[in-house]
Design brief:
By secondary structure, the protein is of the alpha/beta class. The chain has a single domain (4-242), classed as Alkaline Phosphatase, subunit A (3-Layer(aba) Sandwich), CATH 3.40.720.10. It is built from ten helices and eight strands.
C-alpha cells in the first residue's frame, strides 16, 4: 500500500534551473514520474507566504501571511500537518530555514529538526542525511524535507548563475538519494516555493511564479506531463494519498 509521503521542497528551484544544472537524474526522475514543469505558486512569491499556502491550500489573502514574518492567523485554516497528526499518523519536519517552524502547530510533529543554513556549511546534504536516517528507522507517514541553499545562492549570485546552478545540481543529488532510499510504500513529491530573477523574487512574473511539481510513486503514471498545477494542490494530493480528509476551507484540488 503506497500511503506514505515525502514532501521535498527546494527553495527557489526553477524548472529552468533543473533543466540546466547538467544533472542526468532530472530526466530520469521526470520519465518515472507525473510532473508539471510550469506549475504556479502564489503571490507574493516569497518563502513563508508560499509555504503557508502549500500547507494550508489557500491563497495568502486567506491565511494572512504576506511577508517572511509569521503572524497568527485571524481566521485559522487547518494545516496539512495537523490533519495528518490528528488522524494518528507520524509526522516529521527536517529543514534549514528556521522560520518554517511555524508551519506546524505545536504538538503535531514527532520529530522537528533544523540545521540553520546560515550557521552551518553543507546544510542541505546534512539535513538530507538526517531525514533519510529517520525514514529508514522510524517510517513516518509524512515527512517534510526542505533544502534552502538554492535560494541563498540565487540571492547572492543571481538566479541561473553558475553558482545557483551548482546548488540546484546538489539539490537534485539530494533528491536522488531520498528517492533511492524509499521503501515501496512511499510517494515523493518534489517542488519549490517560488522561482526568481536576477537576485530577487516576489513579483508576479513567470520567472518568480513558475515552479516544478513532480509526483513520484505508484499512485502516479510514469512520464505523464500535467498541463496545469498549483502549489495549493499539493496538500490535498498528500491527504488523498495518506487517506486523510481535506479541510473544508482548502481551495486546491488533488492531483491524483
Amino acid at each position: 500500500m503506497n500511503n506514505k509521503v515525502v514532501l521535498l521542497l527546494v527553495d527557489g528551484m526553477t524548472p529552468d534551473g533543473m533543466k540546466n544544472c547538467k544533472n542526468d537524474y532530472v530526466e530520469e526522475l521526470l520519465s518515472n514520474s507525473t510532473y508539471c514543469m510550469k506549475a504556479r505558486t502564489v503571490m507574493p512569491s516569497c518563502t513563508l507566504p508560499c509555504h503557508m499556502s502549500l500547507f494550508h491550500s489557500v491563497e495568502p489573502s486567506r491565511h494572512g501571511i504576506t511577508t517572511n514574518v509569521y503572524v497568527p492567523q485571524v481566521r485559522p485554516v487547518a494545516g496539512l500537518t495537523e490533519l495528518i497528526s490528528n488522524a494518528g499518523k507520524k509526522t516529521a519536519f527536517f529543514y534549514t530555514w528556521e522560520e518554517l517552524r511555524d508551519l506546524a502547530r505545536p504538538g503535531h510533529l514527532c520529530r522537528n529538526i533544523c540545521i540553520n543554513l546560515y550557521k552551518e556549511d553543507d546544510s542541505d546534504n546534512k539535513i538530507t542525511e538526517q531525514a533519510i536516517n529517520y525514514i529508514q528507522t522510524e517510517h513516518p507517514d509524512f515527512i517534510f524535507l526542505y533544502l534552502g541553499k538554492t535560494d541563498d545562492s540565487g540571492h547572492t549570485y543571481g538566479w541561473m548563475s553558475q553558482e545557483y546552478l551548482s546548488t540546484v545540481n546538489n539539490a537534485v543529488n539530494c533528491i536522488k538519494k531520498v528517492v533511492n532510499c524509499l521503501p515501496e510504500e512511499y510517494t515523493v513529491i518534489v517542488t519549490a516555493d517560488h522561482g526568481g530573477h536576477e537576485r530577487s523574487h516576489g513579483e508576479d512574473i513567470a520567472e518568480d511564479m513558475t515552479i516544478p511539481i513532480i509526483l513520484h510513486g505508484s499512485p502516479f503514471e510514469k512520464g505523464k506531463e500535467l498541463e496545469t498545477a498549483q502549489i495549493i494542490d499539493i496538500a490535498p494530493t498528500i491527504t488523498k494519498i495518506i487517506g486523510v480528509d481535506v479541510a473544508t476551507e482548502w481551495e486546491g484540488r488533488p492531483l491524483v
